[in-house]
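Notes continue from the previous slide.

Worked example: a multi-chain complex. Inputs as given:
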Amino acid sequence: MTKNIFENSPKPTDKEFFEELFSKEGVKIERIVSYGHTTPELEWYDQRRDEWVIVLKGEAVISFLNEDDVRLQAGDYINIPAHKKHRVSWTKPEEETVWLAVHC
Amino acid sequence: MTKNIFENSPKPTDKEFFEELFSKEGVKIERIVSYGHTTPELEWYDQRRDEWVIVLKGEAVISFLNEDDVRLQAGDYINIPAHKKHRVSWTKPEEETVWLAVHC
């Protein structure tokens, strides 16, 4: 009935891991696991929904177009408004970074 | 620009702490901090929206009407469908329990 967000992480591969935990009418809750992954150079996310995101383990840097980078450590959260261009420019290479994202 | 869900917790009081972190058209993301708090005896939550909830620190037990209790430790998450009667029957008394809830 319950699951644990830190368990059953996939083995490190060359791709970031995305898992839908819950979804409903315009809302999606997602687990993301990164192992040093970043958004490919010169690519920007430009999402149609807001993304409220928290890092629960590990560490990451999100870059925004024409703005300062934002570093996220365990427990840090941020809202990325729809269509705000951003990319993940760094995640901790030696361990997994676990994100919880709410797209709405 | 970022905040940390484990920081700036209120001092323990006789009331549970609720803080809205983000909200938008039918979605509310909330931080809850419990210090041994429970739902008053014989009271049941009967909510009009689903509540997807994860314990990020501490430990808790949720009781459901006519069902087994569910114990949640750090990282454990569960979805409580709208109108499913439930109560928080126990939270760890010696330390804070930090919950992240998405109501949608």
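Summary box: Strands of chain B lie at 3-4, 17-24, 27-34, 51-57, 59-64, 70-73, 76-80, 86-91, 97-103. Chain B has a mean pLDDT of 95.
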